[in-house]
Amino acid sequence: MTVTADRATSELGSLLLSRYEETAERYQTQLHTAVVLRRDGRELGDIADEGTMAADVEQQDMLTASLHEQLVRMEEALRRYEDGSLGTCERCGGQIPEGRLEIMPWATHCVPCQAAADKHR
Ligand SMILES: [Zn+2]
Predict the structure, then answer these.
(1) Which helix (H) or strand (E) holds 89?
(2) How far is the CA of 66 from the centre of ligand 1 (A)?
C-alpha cells in the first residue's frame, strides 16, 4: 500500500534526522574530549604516565575518526532521503528492506548486492 510506504519513509526520515543530530552531538563532545585530553596531557606531563597518555590520545583519535565517518554517512543518507533515492539499491535498483534501513540508514545496497560487493572487494 502506497500510504503505508509513504508513512514508513517519513518515519525513516525523522529517525535518520534524530540519529544524525545525536551523532553530531557525540562528535562535538568527542572532539572536545580529545582536545582536553591533549591539553591536560601536556599540563600533567610530568605526573601522568606518558605511555598511557599516548595510548589514550590514540584511542580518542580513533573514536573521533569513527564518529566522523558515521556523521559523513548520515549526511549522505539524509541527502539521499531528500532526493528520494534512500532505500533504493544502487546496484540493482531494488528496494532495500525497511528493517535493514532502520539498522543502517546509510545502506546503499540491498542485502544480496552488498554480499556480492563484499565478496569482490
Ligand atoms: Zn540490490
Answers:
(1) none
(2) 26
Residues 6+ apart with CB under 8 A from 55: none
Cα of 20 to ligand 1 centre, how many Å? 25
| Residue with the larger pLDDT of the pair 25 and 35 | 25
Q: Are residues 78 and 119 in the same domain?
A: no
Kindly give the distance from the C-alpha atom of residue 22 to the centroid of ligand 1, in angstroms, as a whole number: 29
Co-location of 70 and 16 in the same domain = yes
Give me ligand 1 centre to Cα 94, in Å: 5
- Mark whether 17 and 46 lie in a shared domain: yes
Residue 71's domain spans which residues? 2-86
73 and 119 housed in the same domain: no
d(CA 3, ligand 1 centre) in Å: 24
Work out how many domains the chain is built from and give that number.
2
Q: How far is CA 46 from CA 12, 36, 39, 41, 43, in A?
A: 51, 17, 13, 9, 8
Find the 42 Cα to ligand 1 centroid distance in Å: 50
* Same domain as 64, residue 6: yes
| pLDDT per position as a tens digit, 77-113 | 999 988 888 889 999 999 999 889 888 888 899 999 9
